[in-house]
Design a protein that fits this description.
The protein is built from 11 helices and no strands. It has 230 residues and is mainly α. It has a single domain, classed as Orthogonal Bundle (Hypothetical protein af1432), CATH 1.10.3210. Helix 1 packs across helix 2, helix 2 packs across helix 10 and helix 3 packs across helix 8.
Length: 230
């Protein structure tokens, strides 16, 4: 049986080790956060609107995840996936990203590679493994019609289903140099209409409730001048 003196000695010996482990964990977390910020800055450099778009999505994604009762440990993964869901677009030529007219079949096929590019980058970093799968599958359709895996319903990670809904909404209501953003009610109508086909209906219902409550802030954030009819 270990004596009290020996036990105290072991405790004292392990104290610096435990402290060092904690310091290393904090350093790793800080480094991971810095990398995430750096990636988001890269999106800003590639396309300023894309960076702001990702920041808005991160805020909304966490709100939806919380409303759905997701565990605290998963909220960070959802937030980061929303921030970095378009990171793979860095691998897509600017001529395609900024093209104001409809993409050709070949151009669209290349654009559809961006979730895979994003996954290939994010999965290399410790702690972002789950996030990388959310990024990979954020263009899957709830009915199996999406890409890249043709997954459907619960096969699609919940984080990816959340990003899919809010990504589509933000794209619809945001104004671009070549088009005006849709009115709020039309964007909501399209989301609801695509429930159970393109989007998870539970996620849509949750997000619609949040968006309706925060409508003025949503439109101020997106920068659209569309008139909202209540």
């Amino acid at each position: 049986m270990m004596t009290a003196e020996l036990a105290d000695g072991v405790g004292v010996a392990w104290a610096p080790v435990a402290l060092r482990v904690k310091e290393l964990e904090e350093q790793l977390s800080s480094m991971r956060d810095s990398l995430i910020c750096a990636f988001n800055q890269l999106l800003d450099l590639k396309d300023l609107n894309t960076g702001y778009h990702s920041t808005r999505l991160a805020e909304w994604a966490v709100r939806v995840a919380q409303e759905l009762g997701m565990e605290e440990s998963v909220l960070k993964d959802v937030e980061v996936a929303a921030l970095l869901h378009d990171i793979g677009k860095i691998g897509v030529p600017d001529a395609i990203l900024r093209k104001p007219s409809r993409l050709t079949v070949e151009e669209y096929a290349l654009m559809k590679k961006h979730p895979e590019y994003g996954w290939a980058v994010a999965r290399l970093f410790p702690g972002l493994e789950r996030t990388s799968f959310y990024i990979l599958h954020h263009h899957e359709g709830y009915d199996g019609s999406g890409y890249p895996g043709g997954l459907q319903r619960d096969e699609i990670p919940i984080g990816a289903r959340i990003v899919s809904v809010i990504d589509a909404f933000d794209a619809m209501v945001s104004s671009r140099p070549y088009r005006q953003g849709l009115p709020f009610e039309e964007a909501m109508r399209r989301l609801v209409e695509a429930s159970d086909t393109q989007f998870d209906p539970v996620v849509v219902q949750c997000f619609v409730c949040i968006a309706q409550t925060e409508m003025p802030a949503v439109f101020e954030a997106t920068g659209t001048s569309t008139t909202v009819v209540l």
